[in-house]
Design brief:
heterodimer, A: alpha+beta, Thrombin, subunit H, six-stranded antiparallel β-barrel, six-stranded antiparallel barrel, 25% strand, B: mainly alpha, 7 helices, 75% helix, globular
Chain lengths: 288, 166
């Protein structure tokens, strides 16, 4: 029944539009904190169990669709992986040699490397939002020591992105290719910033001072100068050769990790914080 | 059906749409794009709800969906409210059968995607390259039209079981 004695459609619509604009402005200005941030956390906390239950039901179906879709590409991917494995084994042999050399040098200089044990929390990817947003949700949150700002790695140890929101039972992760914040990275002995090209699966590396050429295949890793990520985490590789123009260099980078295909991730407690009490969760798997 | 039960049923339908959106359609996509089930349910709800209730449902659904994503809270609430307002003003021309409703849903989904992109860009929340944006604008309404073809009779029967529909 649509007949109404008084049509309040326009006033209600205008009120809701104004309210939405006000809420959005508050959220943008407060950078996700404040009342709106509390609302976001509350909604996520309330819906987390339902989402986990829904995931358990729909995941087999999604796996089936994924499997059918991926079947054609699996053979080619398998061949590419074999080639990468061979290259990695060759690189490993070289690294082992270098490690032996390092041990000798350490012994000679009586040095010890300052290896810091980081707390790593493994989490399942339980959902995404929509086609305009690359962020995804994981099933571990504050109770496991996962906090906003923590770096997120994939199963290969490649950098995926960072946690932007967490609550008890879950968190939202923004991948590098969807993040508006640049990452300080290193390529060779050069330091630069790596920025997302929103909507693209490639990123842009910019080195501003004393830039030297970079070559296709050069590895890009997080820099020791990064305030957000631990150093030396592999991020991606240079797609094509690039020459500096003046003192600056711009190059295209393909991240190693594909955030659309992740099923599980590792969240690193960084910067280092006091460990979460054991009784509170299963978080603490020390790792590299 | 009593009027009081419809908003409850719509709220349940919106909740189910949200869960499916972030779980099933978080993984199953066509050309990297998923249908927007939430706006679809909000649009279909205008066919059987009072105007004010339909607007509140759209606003609430958008707000909750915003909270589940990393974009600013209020972005989808705003675009869904505007889409449902247009839906209310145009529904009489669409309420003729599943096919016309599905096309109507597709066109309104296109409007929703355009509004989301424009408002999101103004607020610095969305920054797609033209090619990427165009692909989404083309594929999303087609997907929503296809899903609407399947869902429309179901939603109509759910909200008005006593009435013979289509």
């Amino acid at each position: 029944m649509r007949e109404q004695s008084v049509d309040r459609t326009v006033p209600v619509a205008v009120t809701l539009v104004v309210l939405a604009l006000v809420v959005m402005t508050f959220d943008v200005r407060a950078d996700g904190r404040g009342v709106v941030g509390t609302f976001r956390s509350g909604v996520n906390q309330v819906l987390a169990p339902f989402q986990a239950a829904a995931s358990a039901v729909v995941d087999p179906l999604a796996d089936l669709v994924d499997g059918i879709g991926d079947l054609a590409g699996l053979r080619a991917e398998n061949q590419a992986l074999r080639a990468r494995l061979a290259a990695a084994q060759a690189e490993l042999a070289s690294v082992e040699d270098q490690l032996e050399r390092l041990e000798v040098l350490e012994a000679l200089l009586d040095l010890e490397l300052d290896l810091t044990e980081l707390t790593v929390t493994h989490a399942n990817v339980i959902g995404r939002t929509d086609s305009f947003d690359l962020s995804f949700r994981i099933d571990k949150g504050e109770e496991s020591g996962v906090l906003a700002g923590h770096p997120v790695l994939d199963q290969n140890g490649y950098l995926v992105g960072r946690v932007v929101e967490s609550w008890r039972g879950g968190a939202i992760v923004v991948p590098l290719i969807g993040d508006r914040n640049a990452v300080t990275v290193g390529v060779g002995d050069q330091t630069g910033t790596l920025s997302a090209v929103i909507g693209s699966d490639e990123m842009v590396l910019e080195v501003f001072e004393t830039a030297r050429p970079v070559r296709a295949g050069d590895q890009v890793v997080t820099s020791p100068f990064s305030a957000v990520f631990p150093p030396s985490i592999p991020v991606g590789e240079i797609i094509e050769d690039a020459e500096p123009e003046g003192q600056a260099l711009t190059a295209r980078v393909r991240p190693y990790s594909d955030p659309t295909r992740l099923r599980a991730v590792a969240v690193v407690a960084w910067p280092i914080e006091p460990a979460v009490p054991a009784a509170e969760g299963e978080a603490g798997n020390p790792g590299g | 059906m009593k009027d009081g039960r419809r908003p409850l049923l719509v709220a349940l339908a919106v909740g189910a749409a949200l869960l499916l959106q972030v779980t099933l359609f978080g993984r199953v996509r066509v050309a990297g794009i998923a249908p927007d089930l939430v706006v679809l349910v909000a649009i279909l709800a205008t066919l059987r709800l009072r105007n004010e209730t339909a607007l509140l449902v759209a606003f609430g659904a958008g707000l909750v969906f915003d909270a589940l994503s990393a974009t600013a809270v209020g972005l989808r609430a705003l675009s869904y409210t505007l889409v449902v307002y247009v839906a209310i003003r145009t529904r009489d021309r669409a309420d003729a059968g599943p096919f016309s409703v599905a096309v109507w849903v597709g066109l309104l989904s296109l409007l929703g995607a355009v509004l989301f992109l424009v408002i999101g860009t103004i607020f610095g929340q969305v920054g797609l390259e033209p090619e990427q944006a165009m692909r989404r604008l083309l594929v999303l309404p087609v997907l929503n039209t296809a899903v609407a073809m399947l869902l429309t009779p179901l939603v109509a029967r759910l909200l008005e079981p006593d009435r013979r529909v289509w």
